[in-house]
């Protein structure tokens, strides 16, 4: 029997997801998630989990509610377990109740996993306890955006206005002028403190405190938008005193972590604890290809080539490995010209006893071709041992120049972790301030997936490097290191970032 789990994803901070929610995410067959559910949690889904986005952002509905209900029921009828993931708590302004009723009518089994609602968590992260004996005896959760199809408002402004209750409005930013006016018209003092908390509990959290009479103008001036929680009442006066989260030294700073996921967690955790918005850069794992017959043929026929062009350290490593497998060594390269496309590749060749005949001044395919042409490569027979999938520009340009080019895959790369495009988008949007490197290989991986010529265009992104050897590799790609710890450790690196 399939089951539908209506799950609260909490307000955004991953640490505020419940253990039960994580368990459901890890085991569901279908994941149907909303705009306000933190997308990071999707990484815990099973590899074959079907992931569907039905988010609503403001008035812009990806799928209308009745279609969402139909989708959930349709998937459940396929006999699958479904995680219906919603921001905060599913039953607090999340329409979880409506979905549950539909499920009952359709005879489908369901469970609810409550979540931490934004109306409590966002104020708490902005230094506002929603109740406090000095200020209030109750708290009210109110929608700031009533069902527009309703004929008569369900709000009783007289009650909100005359009570001393803390009022917590969801979805209220657009209606803030109306909300403030109604409260004042019904008896709340114009100087009553009001707080807005946007993207509460996330690294992008922002908050502001004003008064009922000024808040609409203040919020407009500061450009406060959804998703924000609005809190009205004396408790907001505690913001300055209790505001612990926004004091974090790296709050809102975008930091890219380039370590392999298995090793990265330490750095990711420390940066996260300091408030940074951490972007995990995918790492690549380098693997053998299935069949080396072509490589063997090429190695045995090396005498038929004029140039060997290596574009990566791994190209060198795997080519030599096969040479040794065939029972040959570096001496077979006598008489063949060898090019290294980057400084690290050149070092790898030197380690094999080969001093490259050509190293370009700039490590961009176009420059490489120009340099090789100056060396007289046109019309030659060129072998390029490299990854199975790589930029085609080098072989193409060399073919155009009349070379007889053979591309020889000697290894393949697999991407692990999140996608480069997410980091790329964040860099484009100016959300990234630092890229951290913790070893030379992280530098190489990074520039393999993000070409140096592209990275150059993202101005304002500084490089933090753990130590001198890593920094040397950064320099070889033509970049400077802005953050250099005295102590070459992860905590040392973070310390130095805090000082920058
Ligand atoms: N079920 C959710 C609320 C959904 S209604 C919950 O329990 O939290 C959507 C509204 O929730 C938004 O318009 C905003 O007012 C509020 N909200 C959700 N997440 C928020 C966050 N991280 N920071 C501030 N407000 C948030």
From TrEMBL:
Keywords: Cobalamin biosynthesis, Methyltransferase, Porphyrin biosynthesis, S-adenosyl-L-methionine, Transferase
Entry GO MF terms: uroporphyrin-III C-methyltransferase activity; uroporphyrinogen-III synthase activity
Annotated InterPro entries: 4pyrrol_Mease, 4pyrrol_Methylase_sf, 4pyrrol_syn_uPrphyn_synt_sf, 4pyrrol_synth_uPrphyn_synth, 4pyrrole_Mease_sub1, 4pyrrole_Mease_sub2, CobA/CysG_C, Siro_Cobalamin_biosynth
UniProt pathway annotation: Porphyrin-containing compound metabolism; siroheme biosynthesis; precorrin-2 from uroporphyrinogen III: step 1/1; Cofactor biosynthesis; adenosylcobalamin biosynthesis; precorrin-2 from uroporphyrinogen III: step 1/1
EC primary class: transferase
Enzyme Commission (EC) number: 2.1.1.107
Domain Tetrapyrrole methylase: 3-215
Pfam families to which the protein is assigned, alphabetical: HEM4, TP_methylase
Family recorded in the similarity comment: Belongs to the precorrin methyltransferase family.
Official protein name in the record: uroporphyrinogen-III C-methyltransferase
């Amino acid at each position: 029997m399939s089951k539908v789990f209506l799950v609260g994803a909490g307000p955004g901070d991953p640490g505020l997801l419940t253990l039960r929610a994580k368990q459901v995410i890890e085991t569901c067959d279908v994941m149907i998630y909303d705009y306000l559910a933190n997308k990071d949690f999707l990484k815990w889904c099973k590899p074959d989990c079907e992931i569907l986005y039905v988010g609503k952002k403001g008035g812009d509905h990806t799928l209308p509610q009745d279609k969402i209900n139909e989708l959930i029921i349709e998937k459940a009828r396929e006999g699958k377990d479904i995680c219906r993931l919603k921001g905060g708590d599913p039953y607090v302004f999340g329409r979880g109740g409506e979905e549950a009723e539909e499920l009952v009518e359709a005879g489908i089994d369901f469970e609810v996993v409550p979540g931490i609602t934004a109306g409590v968590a966002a104020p708490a992260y902005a230094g506002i306890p929603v109740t406090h004996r000095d200020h209030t005896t109750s708290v009210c959760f109110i929608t700031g955006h009533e069902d527009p199809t309703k004929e008569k408002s369900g709000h009783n402004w007289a009650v909100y206005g005359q009570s001393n209750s803390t009022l917590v409005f969801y979805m209220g930013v657009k209606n803030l002028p109306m909300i403030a006016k109604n409260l004042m018209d019904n008896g709340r003092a114009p100087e009553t403190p009001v707080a807005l908390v946007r993207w509460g509990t996330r690294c992008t959290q922002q908050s502001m405190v004003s008064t009922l009479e000024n808040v609409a103008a203040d919020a407009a001036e500061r450009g406060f938008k959804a998703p924000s929680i609005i809190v009205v009442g004396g408790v907001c006066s505690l913001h300055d005193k209790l505001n612990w989260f926004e004091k974090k030294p790296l709050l809102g700073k975008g930091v890219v972590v380039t370590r392999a996921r298995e090793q990265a967690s330490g750095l990711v955790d420390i940066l996260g604890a300091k408030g940074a918005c951490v972007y995990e850069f995918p790492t690549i794992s380098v693997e053998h290809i299935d069949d080396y017959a072509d490589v063997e043929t090429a190695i045995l026929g090396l005498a038929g080539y004029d140039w060997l062009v290596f574009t990566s350290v791994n190209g060198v490593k795997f080519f030599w490995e096969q040479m040794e497998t065939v029972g040959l060594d570096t001496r077979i390269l006598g008489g063949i010209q060898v090019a290294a496309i980057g400084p690290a590749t050149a070092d790898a060749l030197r380690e094999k006893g080969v001093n490259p005949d050509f190293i370009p001044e700039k490590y961009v395919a176009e420059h490489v071709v120009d340099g090789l042409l100056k060396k007289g490569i046109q019309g030659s027979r060129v072998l390029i041992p490299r990854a199975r999938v790589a930029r085609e520009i080098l072989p193409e340009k060399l073919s155009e120049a009349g070379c007889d080019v053979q591309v020889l895959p000697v290894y393949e790369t697999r991407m692990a972790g999140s996608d480069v495009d997410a980091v790329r988008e964040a860099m484009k949007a100016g959300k990234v301030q630092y890229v951290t490197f913790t070893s030379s290989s992280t530098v190489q991986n990074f520039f393999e997936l993000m070409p140096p010529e592209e990275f150059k265009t993202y101005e304002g992104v500084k490089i933090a490097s753990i130590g001198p050897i890593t920094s040397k590799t950064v320099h070889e790609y033509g970049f400077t290191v802005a953050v250099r710890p005295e102590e070459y450790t992860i905590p040392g690196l973070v310390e130095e970032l805090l000082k920058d």
